[in-house]
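Bench log. Compound arrived from synthesis this morning; before running ITC I wanted a structural hypothesis for how protoporphyrin IX containing FE sits in the protein. Inputs:
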Amino acid sequence: MSTEIRWNPFDPAHIRDPYRMYKQLQENDPVHCTSRKEWVITRYDDVKSVLKSPAVRVGNRKEWFEKGINYFNQGEADLRYIHEAIHSFILFLNPPDHTRIRNFVNKAWTNRNISNIIAENIEYLLSQIRNKEFDLVNEFAQPLPILTISKVLGIPPADYEYLKDLGKTMIGSINLYHNYRELVALSDAANKFITYFTNQIQLKTDHPDEGLISQLIQQNQIDKELNEKELVSICIFLFIAGEETTAASISTGILHLLRQRHLYEYLKVHPGKLPVAMEELLRYDSPVQLLGRITTTEIIVNGVTIPPESSLIVVLAAANRDPRIFEQPDELNFERVNKKHLTFGWGPHFCMGEWLGRAEITMGINAILKTYPNLHLVDQDLTWGKNISVRCLTKLIVAID
Ligand code: HEM
């Protein structure tokens, strides 16, 4: 076998199967410096220590966007809205703003009774599937988290269709590279989101309900912590944060169960094993494959010295298959004694919606197993999105019979 190491996350072959590339790096060059002078970190212990290190920060996306916006500013489109919309995205912030806003959201977001909402949404989506063949991604896995977060936030159901497509565009703000056309579409979606949530905040200030937007407003009336622009930006981020990740987890989870049919059959008769199986599916194929970070000072990782202001690519999906931690890591094994996978991140930016994502994935997969005991894959030729940061199927045609 060739031991040549290539880091090329944009190669469609690697998006289809990135694990060979990760394994080569993990075994031969676990702190790999690319030709672009980015440092790719693939071993479990290194990934954890980097994500927890106080000498590492999240990259300043606001600055990168500003540079992109200035570069493309040709007077044809107004790109300012992007900056306003992403201003308080928790994921893009470093202390002290990160700590302040994360603590604020945690205080307001206390209602974790979401099983009824998820169950209702699942029932609705399954009732809409009328053909023998259907697209599990677009008809089930993708709409489920959007419908769910809409209800969590307290958004009127009638607005769901309008926000759904805007959300898909807005998720692009989390990607690293954008061309002019993408920035124009992003700015348009950002503008519409700002108007939408500004109106919702006004409405719910006057007429509060049980939803999370009202809870954020009420918390802010006590703390006087945020201005309206910050509140709007937080709402936009909460709306998009769990969409692609949860959709990817449900659809790749079902894909692996259908490809290893005995596991699908096993879960049908052992539904009690689903929570363990769900964790193993998340470990085996993490929807968030990699995270970006910047060093603030010189750091040493696994004996390698990395200078300050270096870009780090922290590969969660490789860490989850590190044989130093997980025996026979390339095997999907529901009997595995669960070690902590890193699919929801680690350290100060650890996912704030993991409990919601976990509930949606478990209930979603359970409903598919129960409703379609004979489900099978139609198309073996899979189409994946272009972005490996969140690796997701764009469609998955399955058949019921
Ligand atoms: C399977 C589903 C999900 C996965 C795999 C996932 C994964 C992640 C990961 C890896 C991070 C850390 C990013 C970093 O360190 O740079 C993160 C952050 C975050 N996630 Fe999730 N997520 C999921 C679902 C959700 C849901 C449903 C929500 C609900 C709104 C959510 C809200 C957030 C928020 C607010 C952050 C930012 C936390 C911070 O920066 O302090 N996630 N998520």
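What the model suggests: The mean pLDDT is 93. The chain has one domain: 12-399.
ITC booked for Thursday regardless.
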